[in-house]
């Protein structure tokens, strides 16, 4: 009997898994996960990934000797030796990084001490050639792979680099998930129960809900007609479907029905809802949970939600969901755009592991116009590649639709098949519940005086400082919302606002005779503009992008109970005049002069056409080919570290707000570690400059954890949020 080469030892049972067993199991998982064009490549990659464990040094280490031995580079070297072209390079990136993350490619002159792929490939290893006796490495049809890689690229080297980078991350995802799952199986830690969904039953529930709606009024009939256009096209096959529907036309239910029908007709494994903000996820998840009941076990993956804290879920569901969050092995997922896109462009196994489960899916992008502008090209490319090469379909959903067909052709795949589901927009005007009026410059007093004449008002401004100042100057019943406040306080205040608006609606049906003491004014930043269902008599919006203005308008006369409602667009007169560098506002001023109704389809189209023309350089700046033009030098690690959809120039500060937050902060002090997810609802957001200001005033402490906490309660107001001078200083 030959030597036993160990890959893993179960610490509990003492059982041994050999390198041969682990390699062959991982290869089978890899092959199973991969799309047909990559199955051969992935099978070999699975076989080679751990051959470095055949080194004597590694065997001594696993048997208890306290030494460090690098094993992952061995498989990368073997792959490069066996396959001299792009196949071997792709394998080398993935195998070399399968523990530490995809490395930067580096350059051919890199020395062995450097952490780049080219540097590490030059390192000296112990002999691991015994793998050739234990593992049967099959031949690969390399020419087929090269043809798959070069398809749709033509002579465009930039496109080839972008596509190679995507496929490398995808293969890395298959490998790391296969590696993790086989190790979990060996250690008997694989989850028994997995999340399930009955798409047919869920679809039936939606159809019952839709058929229960009465169609008597013009608005109800228009809603049914617009939705019907989408449903009629459910048999069309496309890479990307565009669902342009006005606010109030039932986008959520319509998109869910369409997504489930496409999933069933095209044999897709899962539906993934990608939503721009955490605040909208709460609402969408609640709608789907109430609608689907036990027919669909939904997986939620967002930074502010943890299954550890989830109530009203069974233990099997909780454990299955906690496992599925790691690799998205679930049939119905709701996540954020940040989570989705940062996972695709990551280099670490923790994030990239889920990428391969975006294949064979229906991807629904809610509020698609909010895709991050400065990352627009890599985001659109990711969607194009997933739909083209991973056999998924995408649905873009918004009330203010940019010309995505043109954008996809310009920045992603020119021949992506795109289908517009709503072609007859003549009835959109029925959903027009307010008119937009531009009044030019308005000072603080004039703005508040005009707002004070209405029963309920929403004032949306562009900066948190302005919102605080307006709130302090406002008289009567008032509310303030911004990210200077913790999510804990924002939720509390939103609940109060809803209760107040419900009372006004009940007591004053047309809101025209509201006494002074009952009139309310809400002053907010743009966080109120998406996913928050509130209905105000009048809305005032500081000049901004047209999408922001129309989103704010969606909170005015939302239920359509009044024939005449106005959204006032104004330019705020600051105490110290500011020169605006925001092209969006300048574009809107031109549109206001040109169009009687700035919300009309032609105006929206022109707005995006002009905006994306101006931003063309910015849109492309984060494409991988802007970093390198050689697939041997792709900077995976550096790129991933810079790919941040949420601006890292802001800092979160935790504020003690209740007993739970007090205990969590106490844990930071005593243990030196804490649950960042649980603390998020007690965090507010400041800029780096504001953070430095608070630090100089000695009111922040991180207790060595990197989680900054406010130590002086006088610097936080439950209505205004974070303050930059103690309350004592305010007169």
Instruction: Report the C-alpha radius of gyration, rounded.
Output: 28 Å
Oligomer type: single chain
Low-pLDDT ranges: none
Proportion of beta-strand residues: 5-15%
Mean pLDDT: 90
Described by strand count, sense and barrel closure, the largest sheet is: 7 strands, parallel
| Number of β-strand runs | 21
Structural class: alpha/beta
| Total number of helices | 29
Q: What coarse outline follows from CA principal-axis ratios?
A: globular
Output the strand order for the largest sheet: 5-6-4-7-8-3-9
* Helix content, binned percent: 40-55%
The rounded distance between the terminal residues' Cα atoms is 87 Å
Q: How would the blueprint of this fold be written?
A:
Layout lengths: L5 E4 L6 E3 H15 L5 H10 L7 H7 L9 H11 L3 H11 L20 H4 L10 H4 L7 H9 L6 H30 L12 H13 L6 H15 L7 E5 L6 H15 L4 E6 L2 H15 L6 E3 L13 H13 L4 E5 H8 L4 H4 L8 E6 L9 H14 L3 E6 L5 H8 L6 E3 L14 E8 L1 H8 L4 E5 L3 H10 L3 E5 L5 H21 L12 E5 L13 E5 L3 H8 L12 E7 L10 H12 L6 H14 L1 H5 L15 H7 L7 E5 L4 H13 L4 H4 L3 E5 H9 L3 E2 L6 E3 L5 E2 L3 E2 L9
Parallel strand pairs: 3-8, 3-9, 4-6, 4-7, 5-6, 7-8, 10-15, 11-13, 11-14, 12-13, 14-15, 16-19
Antiparallel strand pairs: 1-2, 16-17, 18-19, 20-21
Helix pairs in contact: 1-2, 1-9, 2-5, 4-5, 5-9, 10-12, 23-24
